[in-house]
Amino acid sequence: MPIGFDTDAKINQYAHPEVLVTTDWVAANLATPGVVIVESDEDVLLYQTGHIPGAVRIDWHTDLNDPVRRDYLSDQAFSELLGSRGISRDSTVILYGDKSNWWASYTLWAFKLWGHNDVRLMDGGRDKWLAEGRDTVTTATEVTAVAYPVVARDDSVLRAFRDDVLAHLGLALIDVRSPQEYSGERTHMPDYPDEGALRAGHIPGAISVPWAKATNEDKSFRSREELEALYLGENKLTPGEPVIVYCRIGERSSHSWFVLHYLLGLPNVKNYDGSWTEWGSLVGVPIVKGTEPGKA
Amino acid sequence: MASLDQQLADLSADFAELSVQNRLDLLLEFANTIPEVPERLVGHPDLLERVEECQSPVFLLVEVDDGLVTIHFTVPREAPTTRGFASILHSLLSGRTVPEVLTASDSIPDSLSLSDAVSPLRLRGMRGMLARIKRQVEQKS
After folding, report:
1. Fewer CB in a 10 Å sphere around the end CB: N or C, chain A?
2. ipTM score of the complex?
3. Distance from CA of A192 to the nearest CA of B (A)
4. What CATH number did the domain enclosing B19 receive?
5. How many CB atoms lie within 10 A of CB A82?
6. Which of B27, B80, B121 sits opposite A61 (nearest CB)?
7. Residue B47 confidence class, pLDDT cut points 50, 70, 90
């Protein structure tokens, strides 16, 4: 049976209210059959310090990434991962995490690459749940493994590769990193020349819209009106035009991707997960320094 | 006090014999037992050095007194992995002599069998802490 959507007024102002739930909704659905709550954090130990009762953990790096190649899991490994967490193809997956749901957004984006139908974010993430004084437990949830089918990942719709970005130059690109990373003034620490990318700056033509502009103090998303003013007003995106978002490794840009695609309903938004750690080290690609987008 | 080499070998062995999940549990134990900074440093991040390699706001201060090194860390509670790294370095290096700290192996972060459990990317923060500890000791001794 399909799990009901959140009828909360704020959630229902967005273009796709079916992908977002409130902490209230989660608290009321902790034991609802068919719902699996998943925590995805930057910090690998946070789940153990206290998590939503019944939640399981999926780590962006140790679980979702291939251990050898810079890429996501194989289709087989993804099916095993989800099955091991008690997630079946028709489960309603509720994701939440630290850092305003960066990593939860990233996990959601990955789930969508494999076409998992019903996956939703908890607005405000881990911090909001804790700030509201809601229950947490420290013991890991015991899971009965289930079968998850092996499905082919589709990278063609939501994911941009470097060649896609090169072909996209001149069209809408959003750099969601900090202003210092965008302008290229943030340099390597003298003792660590091998860290991050070899060059600093941004992809030509990319506008700077730091991801955090889409969030409130309590880590929840800003209202639809505020988000439209930011992206469609101030930054002049038009609904329907193809947009690529990027950051350093694709996690902060997953947050912005979620906002543009699901909260504002832009149909054609891709996340460039290679992001600056790839572009800033690629031989021969154009880079712009300074605070202006520059010419593609 | 056991030599640094011995202490590191013991700790490496402790981690190595654990399952991945239990390594995380041990790291969390370290995170929970990191010493608080002394009163005089509380609320004074300006007196400490920011560890840029860590994604969380981590500050450290090294003091050298009479040839002995004391290390102070402040790491937010919301960053238990980073607290764990800091706590491990604190337990290995604080209270040791200047030469012991300066000659400590740069591969301490790689010798704890943590890359599977934590990911190499996250371990980078620990390397940053170690490098900064050594640099401060060099400057202050």
Report:
1. N
2. 0.83
3. 8
4. 3.90.1010.10
5. 27
6. B121
7. confident
